[in-house]
Amino acid sequence: MKCSYCQQEIVRNLTIKELLFPLLIKSERCYLCQEKFKKITAPACPTCCKPGWTTRCEECQQWQAMYPRYDFCHQALFSYDEAFKKWIQQYKFLGDFRLKATFISEIQAYFSHKKGWLVCSIPLSDARFSQRGFNQVEAFLQAAGIKTQDLLEKDVDSTPQSDKNRQERLAAPQVFKATKAAANIKNKKVLLVDDVYTTGRTLFHAAEILQSYQPEKIQTFSLAR
Ligand SMILES: [Zn+2]
Ligand SMILES: [Zn+2]
């Protein structure tokens, strides 16, 4: 079996279960690639997972003032540190599609607590999609066997958020609109998924659009924060 990040061969004995049911063998990271990524642990902001906070962080207080009727809650798995930036560079910007499998076990573990939720990934514009060839969020969800709904589309091809500073990101205009399928989310729980949470701007814009379709609640999730 190959490591789902560095692609080196992983040498380990299979368990009895895996020998009997080879389909149960999940893609995994080698020991070194396991150690590379830092999981977000307590203390972290209760509404956005920003490390180091025990109460709602300053950024979340600002969001709450801006969206007083949106009871937001964001969860993230890993710290957006140098190691994660390197991974996302290789996956998203260099287009190494194999890396969609890097975090399968962590994603499956998280989504096992989200049965019954409608999952929607943040869309790319058509132009960006053609350029990249895949939606990086959709791809890691699919690799983990998570079904998604297309509730949003992105018309305008905005400057990538990664090229902007915090103030520019926060001032960015709305770029999403709802698809016809959004009519089905009334009284349902919706989970919006992105790769990285930086300012929160993208996910708040996405949630803002879906709020008007009266879901029971909206939560958001990203691999890193
Ligand atoms: Zn590895
Ligand atoms: Zn926060």
TrEMBL record:
Transmembrane segments: none annotated. Residues 169-223 form the Phosphoribosyltransferase domain. It comes from Tetragenococcus koreensis. The gene is comFC. Belongs to the ComF/GntX family. It holds the Pfam family Pribosyltran. SUPFAM superfamilies: PRTase-like. This is Competence protein ComFC. The lineage of its organism: Bacteria, Bacillati, Bacillota, Bacilli, Lactobacillales.
